[in-house]
Amino acid sequence: MSNTAVRLLAVAPLIPLILWLMFSAPPWAFVLLVVFTATVASGELMAMIFPSRRAIRLYGVAVTVGLALGLRFLTAPLFLPSALVGLVLGSVVVSLATPEPIEGAATRAGWLVAGPIYVGGLLASLMLIHRLPHGGAWVMLTMLLAWLSDTGAYFAGKAFGRHKLYPLISPKKTVEGAVGGLLAAVGSAVGMHYTLLPELPVLHAVGLGVLAGALGQLGDLFASLLKRSTGVKDSGKILPGHGGILDRIDALLITGALTWLYTAWLLPHS
Fold first, then answer.
1. What is the spatial distance between Cα 220 and Cα 200, in angstroms, rounded to a whole number?
2. From CA 14, how far away is CA 10, in angstroms rounded?
3. pLDDT value at position 226?
4. Exposed, middle or buried: residue 141 (CB in 10 Å: 0-12, 13-18, 19+)?
5. Contacts for 154 with CB less than 8 Å, ≥ 6 apart
6. Which of 104-118, 143-157, 200-214, 238-252 is least confident?
7. How far from the centroid of its chain's Cα atoms is residue 112's Cα?
8. What's the mean pLDDT in 203-226?
9. pLDDT tens-digit map of 216-268
10. The pTM of the whole model exceeds 0.85
């Protein structure tokens, strides 16, 4: 069976469940989906950074999930700076309690702060988007911006790829594939304007598609950089043909944050 067929069969049964959680389920059910995603993805990230430190990995996962839930439910203006201070202090304590091997202590300390923000902080944007009017449609837009861009880049690269995009990090990605991914992202955003999100102006849809498509691909490259730096091919094995959860949401983390920023700052003035 081809890799493409394996990838499709792995995710096809999940699509109806995800759509139900986005559009019809009680809000808490969608929160549980994001919490599950944050738990698995942060576990994969922490396993890459701390392969032999189970206790530290558990700490990193707990802090990641706590940050995501705090950003969703706590609206106090002091929560975010307090959370950042807590992340730094926690990193200081854990790093001093487990300093060896000391050559990698700085990297590990940095990821105890950056990891929860990267996974938990960015995933929280999906829960914030879901709270909006037509929140399910906004979440769908976010997912389409990430995953159709990835799909468009894959097929455009297979068909037309000639020029390497960033061979040091991802040898198979091409400039032609990246352009195909951008077109797919723009097409998905414009398509949402004409279907489920008429409140998204078409020019905004084009701009959001270009920006999210481009930065989402950078998010994918960043995840590849992390894996190469830690000697890991895939972040996990939970999804046949896809790898781990972090492999699937590397672009979604970026498109989710961008969509939330758009809805918070630009959409009210459109």
1. 26
2. 8
3. 95
4. buried
5. 177
6. 238-252
7. 18
8. 97
9. 999 999 999 999 999 998 999 887 766 899 999 999 999 999 999 999 999 99
10. yes
Q: Please name which of 185, 246, 187, 247 lies closest in space to residue 215, comparing C-alpha atoms.
A: 185
- Is the confidence at residue 180, as pLDDT, over 60? yes
Of 71, 40, 64, the residue nearest 112 (C-alpha): 64
Answer yes or no: are the C-beta atoms of 225 and 94 closer than 8 Å: no
pLDDT digits (tens, 9 = 90+) for 7-50: 677 778 889 999 999 999 999 999 999 999 999 999 999 999 99
Give CA–CA dist 22/24, Å, rounded.
Answer: 6
Residue 148 pLDDT class (50, 70, 90 cuts): very high
DSSP structure string for the chain: --HHHHHHHHHTTHHHHHHHHHHTS-HHHHHHHHHHHHHHHHHHHHHHH-TT-HHHHHHHHHHHHHHHHHHHH---TTHHHHHHHHHHHHHHHHHHHS--SGGGHHHHHHHHHHHHIIIIIHHHHHHHHHTSTTHHHHHHHHHHHHHHHHHHHHHHHHHH--SEEETTTEEEEEHHHHHHHHHHHHHHHHHHHTTT-TTS-HHHHHHHHHHHHHHHHHHHHHHHHHHHHHT-SSS-SSBTTTBSHHHHHHHHHHHHHHHHHIIIIIGGG-
